[in-house]
Each structure stands twice: as C-alpha cells, then as structure tokens.
Amino acid sequence: MVRFENVEIRYRGKEAILTDVSFDLGEGNFHFLTGKSGAGKSSLLKAIYLGIFPSKGKINLFGRDTSSITKKEIPEIRRRMGIVFQDFRLINNLTVRENVALPLRIFDTKGSIIRRHVPELLEWVGLGDHLDDLPTSLSGGQQQRVAIARAVIARPVLLLADEPTGNVDDTIADRLLYLFKELHRTGTNILIATHNENLIQKFDYPVLRIEDRKLLFSD
Amino acid sequence: MRIFKLAGSNFFLGWIMTSMIYLALLAVLFSAVSTLSFDKWRSATRDLVTIHVPNPTERIANDAGVTRLDDTLKILRAFPGIESVTVLEKNDIERLINPLVERDIFKNILLPALIEIRLSRNDILPDLNTSLKSLSTEIFIESHAELFLPDAKTFSGAKKLFSVIVSLTLFTAMISVIFAVHSGLAINRETIQVMHLIGAKNGFIARTFQKHVLAVLGFSSACGTALAMGTFFILDRLLKVAFFGDVEIDIFKQINLLDWIIFMLVPVSYALLGIIVAGVSVLILLWKQS
User: Fold this and answer.
1) In terms of CB atoms within 10 Å, which of A167, B7, B134, B189 comes out highest?
2) Is the Cβ pair B198, A74 closer than 8 Å?
3) Judging by beta carbons within 10 Å of its beta carbon (0-12, 13-18, 19+), is residue A23 exposed, middle or buried?
4) d(CA A116, CA A110)
C-alpha cells in the first residue's frame, strides 16, 4: 500500500531531512512512527499524503508511483487517506458536526447519509453533546477527537495521524489509542507519528524509528 | 453549509463593496442624466433661430396695407429649408425681458417682433439673412446654436470631465472588487488548504469559493443598488420640490432604456468579475500548493 524506496526528503535549498528511507506498509498494518522532535516524522507523513515530493528515490502509493501522479490525480489519492494533523486544522467557523461532515460533502455523499453517520461517529468518540459547538469552545482533547472523527468519517484505507496525543494527558491519550485500535479492527491501516515512548510501549505495534535522518525498524 | 468565513472582516469587505458599487452606480446615473439633458438641450437649440423685427407694425411704402412683420413672415413662409415659423406673442416677449427691466417700461417702448423659426437645414442662414436684409437692414437673425456656443463648450467640457470621473469610479470599484476577493481568499486560505488536503478537487474548491464570493458580492451589489436608487429618488423629489417649484423636472424620465440596462449591468458585471477573480485566484493558489 505504501512503499518507500531509497527516498530522500529535503526542502528547497536546505539540508536533507531524511535520506535513504525504505519501508513497505502492506494491508492490515498498524505502525508507530517515532523519533525525536524535528527528526522528520511529519515530513515523512507529508510525503505520504503528497504534501511534498521526494528529492530522490521512489514512493509508491496504492500501486501508483508518485512521480507519475499528475496534480489532477492528487485529490483522488488523498481521498483514500484520512489525516489527523498535529495542529488539528479544524475549521473554526464550522461547528463540530460540519467539520466532521466536510469530507463527506467534498465527496458528494447524500445528505441523508451525512445526517445519520456524523452524529453516530461523534457519539462514538464521546462528543455526542457537542455537535453544534464551535471547535474553539472545545478542549484540546475534544478538538483532537473531532480531528480524528473528520479523518475517519469517509472510511479511509489509510489513516495518518501526526502526534495525535501531543496535546492530551495520558488518560485521554490511552482512550484515543483504543479508538485507533478499534478503527484498525474495522479494516483501516494506521500510521501514527508520536514521540510518546510510553504509549509505544503500552501498545504492541511495530515501530518505525527515525534516527540521524535514517529510518530504522523495530518490532 | 457555509464552509468559508462570512464574519468579521468579510462584512467590512462587503460594506466596502456596497459603497463602491453605490458610488459607481451614482456616477453612471448622473452621467446618463447629464449627458441626456445636454443632448436634449443641444438638439433643441441646434436648429432654432430667432428673427428680430424692429418696428414690426411699420407699413411698407409701396403697399399701404402690409406691415414689415407681414412682409418678413411672407419671406420666411416661402423660404425653402424652414420647418416652422412661430411669432412670439407680446406677453411672451415681455416675459422674456421682464427679469431685466421694470414692467412699466413696456408702456413706453415699442418692442420688436420676435419670430422663432426651426430650420430643416442650417446652410440656408446666409441666404435667409440676405433676403431679410433686403427688406430692412434692421432685421437681424440670432442663431441659438451660436448664441449658446460658449455654454455648449462648457457643457461639453463638463461632460468629458464627468466621463473621466465615471471611468475612474468604475475602475476604482473594479480594483476594490479584485482586492476584496483576494482579501477573502487570504482569510479563507487555511480552509482552502484543509479542503485540498482532505481530497477536494480544485474545481470543487474554486466553485465553493465562488459561491461564497457571489453571496458577499450579491448582497453588496443589492445594497449598493438599493442605496443608489434611494439617493436618486430623494434627489428627484428635491429637484421637483425645492429648486424648480412648478417646473416639472423628472430625472427618472430623462433616463432611457439603454441607460437603465447599463445601470443594472454595473452590479451584475462586478459580481461576475468577482466570481471570475475568485475562481482564478483559488486555482492559482492550489496550483502553487500542489
């Protein structure tokens, strides 16, 4: 599903962030991606969701070489992914319900389906009482859950989460991880970038570790 | 569901648009009214000539029953290229002079006869002048077009100046629309980026933003148009009542269908411009991001 071959990532005019990165994430996977702050975790996720393109090497997504993907095809690839951003990136003038419904609206889903599924999912993530609240009125943990709900509402094949527990305490972090576990059980492939070592130890999933711009595996 | 922000600065932008469209419409309307009035006045005076006949009742020597006025009228009615001949009544002449002199003076002076003629051709004036001078050297012709030539030049200059003002106002309004759309884009840049990352196609984002811009500009255009019409209505009433008293001045009647079409096209074209700028700007933004 996601294959990196000797990938180098660098921003224009700057030193490479990641060099010679190779890994293969097949179907049914749940991985942690870890490394120190600034190690390149977010950049690696960005390369997967086609926010940046490698300066060297090859990335293969869902059987497509990204170097052959045109700008027009990028939305189609992204529709197969759900992304939880580190800073949530919720739209503050939309309510919780509208934020979560946004991907379905973009994908032209029927209104009746949206009206049924969105409250169900928000109930499931524990925000059933906040459907019509604005994100700014929610706590960090609640906003995190809205971001997760928005990422999974359209049932993506691959879920990318960038530090999804970065702004919450350990109890909520555990709850969020159980949420991801549940999603994984329903068939979503998950890659979570985190520097929370306690969390990685608590949940027994394979780990991709970035050290000195290289990617190391540890199971 | 309204995806893009409408609150805060967008309202400010909406009001800027309202005032720009209001000013543009007022400029267009004033220009239309002044141009039409000027054209009407010019066409009314262009072919009009007044013949002054001093001592109109004076008898011609070889024909005891015929006066100088009769003879003049005879020439005028027979002259080719004259559409109509009207002899002004004594009361009309007095009314024309009245503001300049005291009323009593009319008892002591013999007023000249004034004949207003409308020409179908302007080139007959030299020949007509010769014919009338042969009757009496005191008779003289006064062409309204020549008489009001300095005024016409002033009006013509004012008309050109007004055209420049209208053009500048329309141009400023156009620039304001472009900047307002760009500001709206800046306010909603984050939303556009999120939509793009979620998997929205460029066309979908552009269309959604265009709808948003249309909502803001549509409302602003409607407000601007309503304000302009209101202002014009008030001016119409003021002109009728305060300045001209019993003289009927109806500025709405002065504007023809073509001017109304131009008037209505102003807000519509700004809305259209806004939609085009919105679509192109979003596509450029997304193209740069990809």
Assistant:
1) A167
2) no
3) middle
4) 10
Q: Is the CB of residue A59 less than 8 Å away from at least one CB of chain B?
A: no
Whether pTM exceeds 0.90: no
Tell me the per-residue pLDDT of B59-113, one tens digit each, with 9 for 90 and over. Answer: 766 666 778 888 888 888 888 888 888 888 877 777 776 666 666 666 667 778 8
The pLDDT value given to residue B255: 76
- Using a CB–CB cutoff of 8 Å, tell me whether A75 touches chain B: yes
Instruction: Give the residue from chain A lying closest to B197, CA to CA.
Output: A78
Contact by Cβ (8 Å): A168, A126: no
Contact A75 B201 (CB under 8 A): yes
Q: Which amino acid is at B87?
A: V
Which has the closest alpha carbon to A97: A77, A125, A78, A69? A125
Q: Could you tell me which of A155, A146, A107, A140 has the C-alpha nearest to residue A126?
A: A146
The 8-class DSSP code of residue B6 comes to: -
Per DSSP, the residues of B197-244 read HHT--HHHHHHHHHHHHHHHHHHHHHHHHHHHHHHHHHHHHHIIIIIS
Q: What percent of chain B has pLDDT over 90?
A: 13
